[in-house]
Specification:
Blueprint: H1 2-5, E1 9-11, H2 17-31, H3 37-41, H4 47-60, H5 72-95, E2 101-110, E3 119-129, E4 132-141, E5 147-149, H6 156-172, E6 182-190, E7 198-200, H7 203-207, E8 210-214, H8 215-223, H9 232-245, E9 257-259, H10 263-278, E10 285-289, H11 302-315, E11 323-326, H12 327-333, H13 341-357, E12 361-367, E13 370-375, E14 390-394, H14 395-400, H15 404-415, E15 421-425, H16 426-432, H17 441-456, E16 464-470, E17 475-482, H18 497-505, H19 512-530
Length: 531
């Protein structure tokens, strides 16, 4: 989790404005596929990223892990760049029908004065028609009410429009194009979407030779702005000159960030949301596709199963990336209390071999006290995403259940928690539980199912089972488990002791002896963490 959420964006002075816009667009579209230029222009144009960032801030407050979070300055900066880019795109769309050529975000070399003899100038939109060459400066603002005051732009707007004309004049001067053909326009766009506002204090700009219009009338203005001045040959020559001299856009701001959000991040965010809401460590949430519950764990010890599901929990939302866990992390996380590290290394090697042979994993290797795992691309859907077929539970519950069969049955019952019923053929159940052929069905019931149920009754209200028999020999052919319906989220947190104890005493399907035995098992396995 830490690696993912310290790398979901890149903050650097070298991140260019275009990279911010493009990556922010991609991030918002990933979160909300309906994201378009209308949303990008709005004052909520980074809503998805803001919500995600707020979630990470809340998660960090749990004190479990520290995910990288964006500052308010970085968020506002991205929002402004997104809105500006959306406004410029809308201008492009508005002038296409009347323009002979349209350029967007044009950077031209420009010699300014003695203090800054060499530099460049950025023009938001450059439009060529038969009536002239138009340098368009786009101002996207949140206009509350019905009035936009140009004094809000300050004196810098005059420098901008004069530099636009100067830069273009220098480019076109060798062609003999008169500066009179070069015109400047300031277009005001409201981020709130409506165009029902008036302009105020634009007279000084108009006296400086610049037209001031709203987006809704830009097309009409260009269509009626004088007589034809440029022929087709001149227009093509101007296009070529601009294209040949325009520079790459290297503009940056200190608060620029490049977003690196992926679907794996969003998948993991589901778990983070649960962690924040329930106040649990993220590492305790194991989420995966229910089909994994049907995979027999033949040959794995209880400790190896614990480690396997710890790994599955870490793999959720990790994509097909390479996950590496140290022996110490696995030992601590799985609650392995033994001091025989040679034996532990052997068990981890055997687990890695089992995982590799399962075909679920592209790589599973244990060496140098580290287990390296990556999910097979073919089966990545079992570990990523989150559909109605996914299940989740608290790792600390499974880790403390002592019987292997109880661990497996625990997962299967949680998978159908909303139905409160698990019906399965005995043949299939034997396969899931990895029961040897030498065991008869009655031995399975006596030695595996009954002891497993006693371990699980604290967590499943009114848990009981009924076998299905067939033929004169009363052969066991199936079994149905029933219990009170509930949401798996209820078992993401460890509830109070008395609630689990009540589930035992209130279960009318248990004899008094079985209730006492279940209480002792609960005390032994969970007494130190529930009381």
């Amino acid at each position: 989790m830490e690696r993912m959420w310290t790398n979901w964006y890149l903050a650097s002075e070298g991140v260019e404005n275009d990279a911010v816009v493009q990556s922010a667009q991609a991030a918002e579209q990933l979160i909300n596929p309906d994201y378009d230029h209308t949303r990008q222009l709005s004052d909520q144009n980074l809503a998805g990223v803001r919500e995600l960032n707020g979630l990470l801030v809340s998660y960090n407050q749990l004190g479990v892990a520290q995910a990288a979070t964006l500052t308010q300055e970085q968020l506002v900066n991205a929002e402004n760049l997104l809105a500006g880019a959306a406004g410029e795109w809308l201008v492009d769309q508005a002038v296409k029908s009347v323009a002979a050529a349209v350029f967007h975000n044009v950077i031209l070399p420009c010699k300014y004065d003695r203090n800054r003899p060499v530099g460049d100038n950025q023009i938001d939109n450059l439009v060529i028609t038969s009536t002239g060459i138009y340098c368009i400066e786009v101002k996207v603002r949140k206009i509350v009410g019905k009035l936009f005051d140009f004094n809000r732009l300050g004196r810098g707007i005059y420098d901008q429009i004069s530099c636009h004309k100067e830069a273009l004049t220098q480019v076109l001067q060798p062609m003999g194009i008169s500066p009179n053909f070069i015109k400047t326009i300031v277009v005001v766009i409201n981020r709130l979407g409506n165009d029902d506002f008036k302009l105020k204090n634009q007279e000084d700009l108009q006296r400086a030779g610049s037209q001031v219009v709203k987006l809704s009338v830009l097309n009409l203005f260009l269509s009626n702005d004088g007589f034809a001045l440029l022929n087709q040959q001149q227009i093509q020559a101007i296009e070529q000159a601009i294209q040949s001299q325009r520079l790459p856009d290297r503009r940056t701001y200190p608060a620029n960030v490049r977003f690196k959000l992926t679907q794996a991040h969003l998948d993991k965010a589901r778990q983070i949301s649960q962690a924040v809401r329930l106040g649990i460590p993220l590492a305790q949430n194991v989420t995966y596709h229910g089909r994994l519950n049907d995979y027999p764990l033949t040959g794995l010890t209880g400790k190896q199963q614990n480690m396997l599901w710890l790994i599955v929990g870490r793999l959720y939302g990790f994509g097909c990336g390479m996950l590496q866990l140290t022996r110490s992390e696995l030992r601590t996380g799985a609650g392995y209390g033994g001091r025989d590290f040679l034996r532990l290394d052997q068990q981890l090697s055997e687990l890695a071999e089992f995982m590799q042979q399962s075909k679920l994993f592209q790589k599973a290797k244990y060496e140098d006290k580290k287990l390296t795992v990556s999910v097979s691309k073919k089966y990545s859907f079992l570990f990523n995403g989150c559909t109605k077929d996914f299940t989740c539970w608290n790792y600390q519950l499974l880790r403390r259940i002592s019987l292997n069969n109880a661990k497996t049955l625990f997962r299967k019952l949680l998978q159908v928690s909303a139905a409160g019923c698990y019906q399965v053929s005995f043949e299939q159940l034997r396969e899931i539980l990895a029961v040897p052929d030498s065991y008869s069905n009655y031995e399975v019931m006596r030695n595996k199912i009954k002891p497993a149920v006693l371990q699980l009754v604290p967590f499943f209200g009114n848990l009981s089972y009924e076998v299905v028999k067939s033929g004169k020999a009363n052969k066991i052919v199936g079994i149905t488990f029933t219990f009170d319906k509930f949401s798996t989220e209820e078992l993401l947190t460890l509830r109070e002791w008395h609630k689990y104890s009540t589930n035992i005493s209130a279960n009318s399907h248990l004899s008094l002896t079985e209730q006492l035995k279940a209480e002792k098992i609960l005390e032994k396995n969970f007494g130190d963490c529930l009381k």
